[in-house]
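FORM 7B: Structural annotation worksheet

SECTION A. Query
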Amino acid sequence: MRPRPLNPGLSLLLLTLAPVAAWAVWLGWDQHQDVHPDGSVSGPYEAWQVIGLVLTLVAPVYWAASRQRVVSAVFGTTVGLTVASYYDWSDNETGGLFVVGVGMVMAGSLLCTLAVSSLIACLTPQKS
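SECTION B. Predicted structure
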């Protein structure tokens, strides 16, 4: 017996919640900047945390795109990452400058997820 496909609305909801959860796991706990011996400041995130976030999101994006749900993959991932970054950064003391970073997360996730999802959808054979 063949399993029933997941409702498109439910798949969009799951694809929106997955990036929020991944953000909390990979980036949400690290809130302190690192001060180096020379006085320079970096962070709060390390490269391995961001790479982990991206690699974690490949699974749900692949799942959706391989089922020809590119719009859900792109929209869900972009909205999830945008909401998570806004929530995480909104208490910043930069006087609203965090919105620029949130916009960059939104634009970057939109473009990258669109490219990856489209490639996956094109390379995955459609089931009849």
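SECTION C. Observations
The beta strands are 34-35, 41-42. Helices lie at 8-28, 47-65, 70-89, 98-123.

SECTION D. Sign-off
Analyst initials: ____
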